[in-house]
Each structure stands twice: as C-alpha cells, then as structure tokens.
Amino acid sequence: MIEKIISWSTHNRFFVWIGILLIVVGGIWSVMTTPVDAIPDLSENQVIVYTEWMGRNPQIMEDQITYPLVSNLQGIPNVKAIRAASMFGMSFIFVIFNDDAEIYWARTRVLERLNFAQKALPQGVTPTLGPDGTGVGHVFWYTLQGDGYDLGELRAVQDWYVKLALQNVEGVSEVASFGGFQKQYQVSINPHKLVYYGISAMDVANALKANNRDVGGSIYEMNRMGYMLRGLGYIKDIKDIEEISVGAYKSTPIKLKDVADVQMSSDIRLGIAEENGEGEVVGGVVVARYGENAKEVIDRVKERLGDVEKGLPPGVKFKVAYDRSDLIEAAVATLKDALIEEIIVVALVVLLFLFHVRSAVVAIVTIPLSVLIGFMLVKWFGISLNIMSLGGIALAIGDLVDAGIVMTENAYKGLVKAVLKTDE
C-alpha cells in the first residue's frame, strides 16, 4: 500500500503540490480559528440552577426549594445525573448532561422545566440559571486601586459601572464582583416603641415597600393642553426613609424615625478578599463563555478596560491580578521554540551525515506539514489548543524527527544504489 502511494506521488507531482497547498491553507485556518486556552477544560457538561431565599435554614431550603426543583427537573433528555446542595438561604442544583449534548440546548431544556416548576415554589422565590461558563472560565482577574476611597465606594464603582461595562464584551459570560462592602440602608427597629405606639413590624415593612416607588397618573387637560401626571416616590437618601409614615397614634402620624434608627451601612460579609497580604481589595472576575477563545476574550476585555478607566473617579485605576493570556502565550511560544529547534537539528543531522541539501529539505518540510495536519485534526474534533494538546504536538514532533531522518537516509541509500547500478 505504501509503495503504491509513493509510486503514485512520484508520477503525479502536480496533485502532490495541490495536496501540500491544501494542507498549508487548512492548517493555518485551523490555527487561526481553534480556541486557545492554557488549561484544558475537564469540567462536566452541566447547567447550574441557583435559588436564593435569604433567612431560611438549610432544612427549609431542602424541603421547599431543592426537592421540588429536583423532582421537576427529572426526565430531561440526555441528563446523566442531577446533584443538589442546600445551605443557609441558598440552593444549588447541578444538572449534568451527556458530553455530546449542546450546552445552549441543555440550558433551554432546563429553563422550560423551571418555568413549569415555578408554581411549586413559595411566593416571591425565583430560580435562575448560572452563567454559561465552565469550571476553568475564570480567565481574568482585576482589582480597583484608589487612595482616599473606602472599600464601600470602590465596590459601588465596581458593581454599578465597571461590571456593567465589561459584561457587554463579546465572549464574556459573567463578571463576578468580590471584596469590599455592599452599601445598603439599614432600619434598626426599637421593639419597645412599636409596642408603645401599637405598630407591628409588618406595618413597618409594608410602609417601606409602599413608599419606594413611582406611580403613573392620567392626563390633566387644561387650555387645550394635556399634562401627564406622575407621582415621584423613590427613596433618594436617609431623610426620605425617616419621613415615611408607618401608622398613627391618637390622630398623630408616626414616622419611621420615631420607632427606628435609619443608617447607611454594609451587607453582612462571610469573608474578605486580600491581595498579597497587603490589605483588602475590591475587584472582579471575568468568566469566559463556553466554547469561546480565551485569548481573544482577554484581549477584548483589556481593550474595554482602557475605555472604562477613562470614566473612573479621579485617582482610581485598574490593577491586573491574574491574566491567563501570559500562560497561553508561554505555551504557544514553547511549541514554536520546539518546532524551530527540531527543524534545525534535523537539518544539521541530515547535512552532516548525508551531505545532501535536497534530502535535508525533504525532512524539514515534512515536520511543519505534519504539525499543520495535527492542527486540522484538533479543529475537526473540537479540541481546544491548551497545554495538554500543544504538549502532545511538541512530543509528536520528536517522533517526526526520528522518522524523518530514518526515512530520508533510507531513501538516499536507495537512490545511491539505483544510480550505481545504472552506471554499471
């Protein structure tokens, strides 16, 4: 079989050159379009369902949230397993699909079941899907540095400006904030005053909900002109909260400040984010979308950070905490160095022992062509270029070197013998 292929190739050089050209074009196209990452994605093909019901203990979360959702998610096509975890105020369900299931098709199927399961949950509880990322999707970390700004101010900048700007970058699934303090209005009720005025805690809660919204009215017509009416009721500062009426005592309105203390404070924290032991920091984690080219996503994020930094408060700037593109570039550079070094070694060995330039060229050309064929197969099977796949190609180059030298030497000897016989 091999002899027939060699014989056909020697008699059809035009088609051989066409095949070489197609390999070069296909290999370069595969290199340019195959997703590049540093770490191979070994995570399972899963969809995460997250439900929050703050203030409830794990047993209530298990009975009223996790169990109804898991029961309704059973029977989805291509599901391999369903795992769940209930904790204080939160429920996580991991729907694991077969490896050949398309991720967005799987998310659609889960979302359809969640719409049906909504009626089995307590009122006001809404399950949500996790981001369409993977376990190795954390490709870029950054922190916000600013002298004169406290952690609450930096977290507000991160949540309400930076995060929203980076989520619009193509290929970004989620921007997760970490560190700092999340500001919130806190109302500390005095129970003794509630008893004195005959007001319940539920009355206070309902008053807060009812007095933090805008309402629309009808049209008031006057002098052939129509005026739109609307009521402005959104809370803007602490004073607006303190002036809310929560009831009446002997025909006298009771305001919230009469029964409670209102202050601006932070949400309860379960941990802190510290950088290099130098103190707390505020920042974000950029999660790449499933199947995206991590290197291109990081480049687009860096470009957007340059635009976003122009709108930051004076003195606030970005600091890169983790950039996977450095590791990606190092892995690619290692493969390039290995390819160049082994081509040089092959050329020197062939020239040194055979003293034949054309034989060296044949051995040298087969190495990059074989690597390009490998890239085409990587693209064909949907494998990303990472440390493992690039390392495998680098190791395969070593085998190609040995085979190229041996085959070139045998071919050279065969040609020499044929020439000598012809001369005789």
Give an account of the 3D structure.
By secondary structure, this protein is α+β, with helices and mostly antiparallel strands. It is 50% helix and 22% strand. The protein has 13 helices and 14 strands. The strands form five sheets. Strands 2-3-1-4 form a four-stranded antiparallel beta sheet, with helices on one face. A hairpin with a 2-residue loop joins β8 (215-222) and β9 (225-231). α3 crosses α4 (103-117) and α11 runs parallel beside α13. The longest helix has 37 residues, at 387-423. It is elongated and about 125 Å long. The model has no long low-confidence stretch (mean pLDDT 85).
- What portion of residues belong to β-strands? 15-25%
Morphology call: elongated
Please state the CA-atom Rg, rounded to the nearest Å: 33 Å
Structural category is alpha+beta
End-to-end Cα distance, whole Å, is 31 Å
Average per-residue pLDDT, rounded, comes to 85
Biggest sheet: strands side by side, in what order?
2-3-1-4
List low-confidence stretches: none
Multimer state: single chain
Please estimate the helix content. 40-55%
Largest sheet at a glance? Answer: 4 strands, antiparallel
What's the number of helices?
13
The total strand number stands at: 14
Task: List SSEs in N-to-C order.
Answer: HHEHEEHEEHEEHHEEHEEHEEHEHHH
